[in-house]
Amino acid sequence: EIVMTQSPATLSVSPGERATLSCRASQSVSTNLAWYQQQPGQAPRLLFYGASTRATDIPARFSGGGSGTDFTLTISSLQSEDFAVYYCQQYNNWPRTFGQGTKVEIK
Amino acid sequence: EVQLVESGGGLVKPGGSLRLSCATSGFTFNSHSLTWVRQAPGKGLEWVSSISSSSSYIYYADSVKGRFTISRDNAKNSLSLQMNSLRAEDTAVYYCARSWTSFEYWGQGTLVTVSS
User: Fold this and answer.
1) CA–CA dist A39, A82 (Å, integer)
2) Considering only CA atoms, which of A76, A86, A79 is closest in space to residue A47?
3) Tens of pLDDT along B93-105?
4) Phi/psi of residue B89, nearest 5 degrees
5) Least Cα separation, residue B11 to chain A (angstroms)
6) Kindly report the CA angle at A81 between B100 and B92, in degrees rounded to 5?
7) In what order do the strands lie in the sheet with B3-7?
8) What does residue B31 show for φ and ψ, rounded to 5 degrees?
9) Contact status, residue B78 vs residue B22, Cβ threshold 8 Å
10) Minimal C-alpha gap between B17 and chain A (Å)
């Protein structure tokens, strides 16, 4: 099983600032990596697939990158609606696996 | 508009059974694989099971293998998850999602609570 490790667990950021989230795979997943945002009480929302391809209606302030084992999600200027939990997920191998999540909170 | 709506959750005793359903609309059902993902209270996301468009390929997480059965009815545009021998650690919100790679479309989830 591929273990996905996200860091940090919690990121405290002020509105308007930049946030960088990391996701590391225990073995290469190529670019078969997705990012999700989850607000409390809601289903996850797909942000990126293929590591860097933005999903439908995702604002340009979000960017994704990386390949192999190391991936990043960057939010260039945090808006109030961006404070949430973010998960990475690999779909290169079975079983599909998620990272444990990074909570982005207001500083 | 793509829609997925889960149902069938509830309170069940350890060792009991429950069948979840996911009704779908807004897309060509028999062209897409489908997946169940769960989330225990206050915890992260856990992939549970996926099924191919024709049911030819089925995958399970080790944590549910032998206890859960995924199935689909392409005539009724619905997905199911039969859960047997339920344990306390199966308590979670269960989501159905379209695809088995990245998940763009999700249902709202149904809560399963396993407790005596």
Assistant:
1) 9
2) A86
3) 999 999 999 999 9
4) -75, -5
5) 19
6) 45
7) B3-7, B18-25, B78-83, B68-73
8) -105, 0
9) yes
10) 24
- List C-alpha distances in Å: B111 to A78, B9, B51, B90: 32, 5, 21, 10
Q: Write the CA distances from B27 to A36, B1, B44, B53, B93, integer angstroms.
A: 22, 8, 28, 13, 24
B108 chain-A contacts, CB cut-off 8 A: 43
Residue A27 confidence (pLDDT): 98
Whether residue A101 and residue B44 make contact (CB cut-off 8 A), yes or no, is yes
B13: closest CA of chain A, how far (Å): 25
Report yes or no: B103 at the A interface, CB cutoff 8 Å: yes
Burial of A94 (0-12, 13-18, 19+ CB in 10 A): middle
Q: What is the mean pLDDT of residues A45-72?
A: 98
Residue window 18-57, chain B: list those with CB within 8 Å of chain A.
35, 44-47, 50
Q: Considering only CA atoms, which of A75, A69, A59 is closest in space to residue A21?
A: A75
pLDDT 10s digits, A19-46 = 999 999 999 999 999 999 999 999 999 9
Residue A47: closest C-alpha in chain B = B104
Give tens-digit pLDDT for B41-64: 999 999 999 999 999 999 999 999
* Cis-peptide, bond into residue A15, ω within 30° of zero: no
